[in-house]
Every structure is written in structure tokens, then in C-alpha cells.
Amino acid sequence: MKEKSTGKQKVIWAIISILVLIYALFPVASILATSFKSAGDLTNGSFLPSPGAATLANYEQILVGDAQELFLTALWNSIGISLIATAIAVVLATLCAYAIARLDFPGKRLILTTALAVSIFPVISIVTPLFNLWRNIGLYDTWLGLIIPYLSLTLPISIWTLAAFFRQIPWELEQAAQVDGATTWQAFRKAIVPLATPGVFTTAIIAFFIAWNDFVYGISLTSTEAARPVPAALAFFTGASQFESPTGAISAAAIIVTIPVVLLVLLFQRQIVSGLTQGAVKG
Amino acid sequence: MKANGKNTDYSDRAKAERRLGWILAGPAFVIMLAVTLYPILQAFFDSLYAFRLTAPDEREFVLFQNYVTILSDPVWWRDLAVTVLITLVTVAVELVLGFALALVMHRALKAVRGWLRTAILVPYGIITVVSAYAWFYAFDISSGYVNSWFDWVPGIDPDLNWFAQASTALPVIMASEIWKTTPFISLLLLAGLAQVPDELTEAAKVDGATWWEQMRKVIIPNMKAAIMVAVLFRALDAFRIFDNVFIMTGGQYGTEVLSLLAYRTSITRLELGLGSAVSVLLFACVLLISFIAIKVFKVDLSGSTGGKR
User: ipTM score here?
Assistant: First the structure.
């Protein structure tokens, strides 16, 4: 494994790397190419827009054109609902994971098992009763009506990931700081908070992804632009006429909702990988 | 500082710690129960009634009649078969592909390691609906390029409508699912690989074991726990597949899965009694899969985490 790389090995690795890159990026390139196609170009069966015919018209249509209302509202809904659901989940999960890692109390196992059970729950099984309940109490098609069910997606993984992070914190530091004359709060803030912050931050990113990715709640518990998030809005996009499918506009919208998320992944890949794997494997 | 939990006579300090523990952990626990346990109980209750939202006044207690109706309907069994097929195929392919990717990331030269991991994470960051559209437009008969690229392959011609029959639509649906979720499984396997002690592999190499023997006798047995967790999580996830099917075929032409059946029954047709029964049955399937996995593979999920401290 540690032997020096020879020229032949380099070639092999170059080929493997290219294959992996194609595997990972081709579908993204595919929808990116589609998003620049003009209406006439969409059906000619080629991968790239015809030379000279690449256009920003699809982006114009969803950002400043006739689909603007639909797309920008949905984008705003997605950002707002996902951020609030993430914030609530991370705050509650931080308290919970701190207690699990730091304090001795009966029921820790019960809490972790419940989190696991909730995370394997089929979302669609919750949707039917919520659909009826939300209609009765006025939460149907509102932000709050999505934020609450999103907690079933974001809370369990946040608890697991944070509990894994917090277990690795050397809590004795706190005591040491107290011995050195710090108050309890000072000791906690100076010794523990800096160590815990990266874990909380990572968890927030992972939870945000999961909320951002939701589709089932989004299409089932909303009916108008009042609360419909982007993934659901994409599925209900309609073209200018019923004979024209909005392929270009959907592709452009897909690219816009993908860019910020992929940037986040790229910027914080190290943290995300450790967060995901610790939460799931080591727990 | 830490109280000894095994003491029978709790000091005031230990009592205070127990109380604080539940004060901090309680809200998260209660919310988890409220957003899942309560709805599923409500679903079970609703499933005992003949209840259509289009005629709410005719709500009537029918006991298990809804379950009889569903289980005697071939649609349920067809959708179950499609769901199981998708689950088995995607998990099997993802396990092999994910393992290959994990090996590549594990052994890659330093220079490319970061790049590879970054690239592999991209599908993870993309929302399922976007991935579904990317695959759909590539294969779609009007906007797609697959037909013209692969017309030399027997069976693929420019007129092939991939989404008009299950035999061609399901492979595309599965491919998009595999593409999107393999990164997750390969990250779990990479973490498992990292836990295999290097000395063991070295020793096997010194003993003259071939690459395949090292894999089979040393590496894979040592990663059993990681593999089991990855397979179980992915299987449960694949069983709930919804987004890609909804986008690509809407469940038409024999591609409907159970989640879509539940959605169609409750949300589209407003048959809340029947829909609730489908939801409960789907939940029962997921419980059954977890139960079998835990029994057969002896994965102790909570034990792998439990009170390690």
C-alpha cells in the first residue's frame, strides 16, 4: 500500500479517477447542458446545445420572466422552512446530545433507539394522518405545517451525529478550567464550546440538506405557493401551453437549487464526511 | 464529577443530574414521539373506518375491512413486488459499487484522493428530484440523447420510449436511485475500511495471500458491522422510494411503488381510510425488515452506540 508510485500506477490511477469523475458528474453536466438549450434545440437528441444556440432564456424565465413568481416564491419557502427546521432540530439535538454524552441519567438508550426508529419511519406513513389533521387545524399549506414534520427528518440524525461528536470531547477540560479559577459557566464556555462548535455546525449542514431534499411532505402538505418548497414546485411546473413541456425551465431551476448545496458540500466536505460516518457507524 | 449510576442510594447530586438530563433531552424526545408516534397511531385509528374526504359524513367503522380490501387487491401485491425488486437490485448494486468506490478512495494516491472524495460527494449533495429530472431528460424520448447515442445497442432505437413500460422504466429509476445514494454507502464502507487494522492486511500479504484472499479472509470479515449497517440503512431507505418514481413515470405502466400507492390513495383520491391502511401496512413492512435484519444479522444498532461512556 505504501510502495512508491510508478509511472504505470499513475496511469492506472488517472484512468480510475476519470471514470469516477464521469460517474459522479455526468448527470449534473447533463442537466446543466439542458438548462442552456433553446426551445427549438431541446428535442434534437444531442447532449450539448447546438453551437451558437446556447441561451440564458431558461434562467431568465424563472428569475425575471413569467415563471418568476412560481420559482422565487418556492425558493424562498424552501430556504425559510429548511433553515427554521434545521435551527429547531439543532438546538434541541444539542441539548439532548449534551445530556447523553455528559450526564448520567436513565433512558439514554431509549432516546437513541427512538431516534433510530424515527429515522427509519416511512415518511409517507405520517403524511396521511397529518394531511387530514393539518386541514382540520389550519396548518395545511403553511410554513409551520412543513416545519413540524421536517423535525421527524432532521431531529434523529442531528441527535445521533451530535452524540457521536460530543462523546469525543474530553469533558475533564471543564474541571481543569474550574480548578484554575473559572466559574462553571466560564469553564463551559471557554473549554467546551470551542470544541463542540464544529460538530454543531456540521450537524446543521447535514440536517439542512435533508430538509432541502424533502419531496413527500412538500407535495402532500401544500397546495399553493404559500408554502410549497422547490422540489415540489419543480414537479408541478407547467409549460407555457399544455403542449410545451417546461424542460428548459425545470433544468435551469434544478441547477439554481443545486449550486448552493453543492458549494456547501465542497466547502465542508471533510466535516460532512466525518459527521455522516460517525453518526451512522460509530454512533 | 460523574455520578456512579449503579448506586442504589442516589446522592442529591446524582438526582439533580438525572433531572437535568431529562430536562435537556426531554424536549427532543417528546417532539420525536409527537411527530411520528402520534400520527401513526392516528393512521391506525383512521384505517379502521370507511372514510372518504369527498363524503366526510359517511364515515363508518368497518374494523379491518380496509385491510382486507387492500390485501385482496392485486395492485398492492404488484406494487409490493416492484418495491422489493427495486430494493434488492439497488442495494446489491450499491454495495458492490460503493465498496469499489470506497476502495478507490482508500487506496488512491494522495494527489487525487481529495478530488475523488469531492466528486463522489456531489451526488449526495444533489436533491433527489433534481437527480430524477437529470436522468429523466437524458432518457426521455423527446429531449433525451440516450437513444441517439446508443442506437447501435440492440433494442435501443430512436423511437424507444423508456418510460412507457416497466421493463425499461424501472432500470432507469433504479439507476438514478443508485447514482444518488451510492456515495452515502461508500462513505460508510470507507469508514469501515479505515477501521481494519493495517497489521492484519500486511501480515496476510507477507503470508503470500492474493489480493482476493486478503479481501475475503481479512478485510471483509473485519468490516462486517459497517457493511451490515450500510445495507440495513440503504434497504430501509430504498423501500421508501418515492421521488424518482413520481417524477419519471408517476407510477404508470406498472412502475408504482408502495409509497406512491399510499400517496395516490390518500392525497390524490382522498380515500383516507384506505390510505391510512396502506400507510400502516407500509410501516409494518419497514418494521419487519428491521426486525429480520437485526435477528438474522445480529446487528445490535443501539449496542454499537449505547453507553460507551
Answer: 0.87
Q: Of B80-89, B103-112, B117-126, where does mean pLDDT reach its minimum?
A: B103-112
Which of B12, B42, B133, B214 best probes binding to A when mutated, by most A CB atoms within 10 angstroms? Answer: B133
Smallest Cα–Cα separation from A15: which of B194, B117, B116, B110?
B116
- What values do phi and psi take at A227, rounded to 5? -140, 0
Integer Cα distance of B168 and B249 in angstroms: 11
pLDDT at B1 over 60: no
Q: Which of A16, A120, A212 sits opposite B236 (nearest CB)?
A: A120
pLDDT in tens, A88-139: 999 999 999 999 888 888 888 899 888 888 888 888 888 988 988 898 898 9
Of B279, B269, B270, B276, which is closest to residue B53 (Cα–Cα)?
B270
- Residues in B closer than 8 angstroms to A111, CB to CB, are 25, 28-29
Chain B residues whose CB is inside 8 A of the A124 CB are 240, 242, 259, 262-263, 279, 282
Least confident stretch, A269-278, B6-15, B277-286: B6-15
Mean pLDDT of chain B, nearest integer: 84
- The residues with which B60 forms a beta bridge, in sequence order, are B50
Buried (b) or exposed (e) across B116-145, using 16+ Cβ within 10 A? bbbbbbbbbbbbbbbbbbbbbbbbbbebbb
Chain B hits for A25, Cβ within 8 Å: 119, 122
* B263 shares contact with chain A (CB less than 8 Å): yes
| Stated pTM of the model | 0.87
Residue B44 in grid coordinates? 391506525
CA distance A79 to A208: 9
In this prediction, residue A279 has a pLDDT band, given cuts at 50, 70 and 90, of: low
Name the helix (H) or strand (E) containing B173: helix B166-194
Q: Say if the Cβ atoms of B2 and A104 lie within 8 Å.
A: yes
Instruction: Say whether residue B112 is in contact with chain A using an 8 A CB cutoff.
Output: yes
Q: How far apart are CA B177 and CA B235, in angstroms?
A: 12
A132 interfaces chain B, CB cutoff of 8 Å: yes
Give me A236's grid cell.
Answer: 408541478
Instruction: Kindly identify which residue of chain A lies nearest to residue B151, measuring between CA atoms.
Output: A45
Other beta carbons less than 10 A from residue A179's beta carbon: 9
- Residue for grid cell 438525572: B18
Q: Pick from A24, A212, A258: which is nearest to B186 by CA?
A: A24
Contact residues for A212 (Cβ-Cβ < 8 A; gap 6+): A78, A82, A257, A261, B127
Give the residue among B67, B161, B81, B22 at the shortest CA–CA distance from A98: B22
